[in-house]
Amino acid sequence: MKTAPETLEHITIDPPTVDAADPWCGISRDVIRRFVDVLSTEHGLPRSMLDAYRADLDALDRWLIETKQRTLVSATGEDVREYISVSLSCFRAFYGFLVNAGCRDDDPTEPNRTPRSNGALLRDREH
Q: How far from 3 is each of 12, 17, 45, 74, 103, CA to CA, in Å?
């Protein structure tokens, strides 16, 4: 199903499309729902974990459609590794930013990094 393009002032943005040859086009949401249902009934996972799984799979599916013109079901191993790499890079940059801004004294993406002292944090926040 093709949706109408969005128009922002004088710029037209076409919505992302999936290759029409992809037999899984348009059913990712249903596959995710079924997967989450199985996790719930057969494994008894808590609602919070099921919601997190659903959100992660929805985000991967959106990324695949926007960047690879593929669906969650038709993704390649390379696609998934690239998504994980991009996500990890984002998290590292974000936590590095928080450390540099003095909002955190540690970076949870770098387990070997030693936390800054409380005095250094307080001094940074005063400036």
A: 13, 9, 36, 21, 42
pLDDT tens string 15-69: 455 555 666 667 888 999 999 999 999 999 999 999 999 999 999 999 999 999 9
User: 């387990």: which residue's tokens?
Assistant: 111
Residues 6+ apart with CB under 8 A from 100: none
Distance separating alpha carbons of residues 46 and 58, to the nearest angstrom: 18
DSSP 47: H
pTM for the model stands at 0.67
Please tell me the distance from the alpha carbon of residue 57 to that of residue 75, in angstroms, as a whole number.
Answer: 12
Lookup: tokens for 43: 């494994």
DSSP state of 12: E
Q: Which of 109, 96, 32 is nearest to 64 (CA)?
A: 32
